[in-house]
Amino acid sequence: MRIAVSSIGSEGDVRPYVALTRALAAAGYDAYLVAAGRYRERAASAGISFRESGQPWNEDEYRQVMRSVLAERSFLKQGRILMNAAQHELLTALPGVIEATRDADIIVHHATDITGFAASLAHRKPRFTGTLIADFLPGTIASALIRFGARFMDGIFNPILAAAGLPTRRNVALELNESPLLNLVAISPLVIQPRRTWRGRWQLTGYWFLDEPDLAPDSELSAFLSASPPPVIIAFGSMPALRSKELTEMIVDGVTRAGCRAVLQSGMALLGKKSEMPRHIHVARYVPYTWLLARSTAIVHHGGAGTCAAALRAGIPQAIVWHLGDQKTWGRLMHRCGVAPPPVFHRRMSIDWLASTLMRLQSDDAMRASSAALAAEVAKECGVDAAVEAVRASIANM
Questions:
Q1: How far apart are CA 398 and CA 177, in angstroms?
Q2: Cα–Cα distance measured from residue 184 to residue 203, given in angstroms and rounded to the nearest whole number
Q3: Within 13 Å and on the Cβ side, how many CA atoms surround 355?
């Protein structure tokens, strides 16, 4: 049985699907990942087969689009900017995805991956979805809003279906998001609970973590982490900054006022770039969270699903500075779990907020105890194995 696993987007969107592909291959399926060329090395390090889609990646262009989105105060206009930019990338990626999935028996695609959806229709192949987005799950308030706005998305998605030689459809976003066969939810049942409206087609598996070989960090990062006390991590992942220099200065002042040590992951926000840092702050490029968070005491981040999961697994408190999309939802979920204070919108982050939050993350015994307790429970889960079993059962019933 040949299974194509297709995903689009940033590291956080693709990384769990690398883990799923590896688990499917280990279970005996002929599984391979379909993603942008920038993930070829990630697939190789995981030991899985890889087929490249045509999705382009230009970091400067991405940063410019995202800055335009974050500068816009209207959520509706933010969506238009995002989707207009995404449509071009998706149309470019589509031929590669169509070709890469031609000989697949089943296509498993990210619930937002219209190219994987189009490929399944074009090839008349069964499809399963996978999602890490709590807002997409049936029965949530956000999902109701998505249903309300689905017709708007038709104008974005139907040209992609047309490019695949398919007729136009109504409410494409709703059909894309839900397979009639199986929908895998890569979220811990400790964080969300199944709903009756899932009707058995949505399977809550737990997180799909990707463990990689031990990291050999650069000597400066290694020396910084070996000193004490352990640092806090500040990272906004794929979220750029409207003004990187001013944001870096705010963070430096907040960390200094809190009296702690910190590692700033530069990321798309370009934190610390071309800035001289005090001795208690270190600027790092990409470092896998599995390795980094195990050597830290807390994290302040943008509220990405993968980062929330990594912090839960590491057993450290977290604070969410949300920017857009489902990040606010993740902030609220982490707060409800007792491992984070209430989330704050990125425009409202201040030196005072950061300093007081960093001090709380390190001194709040109840929050630290909740983080440790949840980590112990998450360690008992194996999301990819549960996903493989759900796939196996669904195939048997097809």
A1: 20
A2: 5
A3: 12
Distance, CA of 348 to CA of 354 (rounded, Å)? 10
Q: How far apart are CA 224 and CA 204, in angstroms?
A: 39
Q: Which helix (H) or strand (E) holds 295?
A: none
Decide if pLDDT at 275 tops 90. Answer: no
Query: Which is it for the CA torsion 117, 29, 397, 205, positive or negative?
Result: negative
Rounded Cα gap, residues 204 and 131, in angstroms: 10
In this structure, are 371 and 391 located in the same domain? no
pLDDT tens digits, 102-114: 999 999 999 989 9
Tell whether the model's pLDDT for residue 313 goes beyond 90: yes
Q: Is 63 helix (H, G, I), strand (E, B) or coil?
A: helix
Judge contact between 287 and 225, C-beta under 8 A. no
201 and 225 within one domain? no
Residue 346 domain flag: yes
142-173 residue pLDDT tens? 555 566 666 677 888 999 999 999 999 988 88
Phi/psi of residue 183, each to 5°?
-130, 115
CB 320 within 8 A of CB 344: yes
Q: In which band, very low, low, confident or very high, does the pLDDT at 285 lie, cut at 50, 70 and 90?
A: confident
Indicate whether 15 pLDDT > 80: yes
The one-character DSSP state at 135 is G
CA distance 174 to 168: 14
Question: 283 with 197, same domain?
Answer: no
54 and 156, same domain (yes or no): yes
Residue bearing tokens 């291959």:
25
| Any domain includes 16 | yes
Tokens of 65: 């689009």
* Burial of 218 from C-beta contacts in 10 A (0-12 / 13-18 / 19+): exposed
Give yes or no: residues 349 and 385 share one domain.
Answer: no
Helix and strand numbers (H, E) in the chain are: 16, 13
- Cβ-based neighbour number of residue 184 at 10 Å: 28
What is the largest distance, in Å, between two alpha-carbon atoms of the chain?
61
Tell me the C-alpha to C-alpha distance, in Å, between residue 159 and each of 88, 91, 241, 376: 10, 8, 32, 47
pTM, 2 dp: 0.92
CA distance 151 to 315: 41
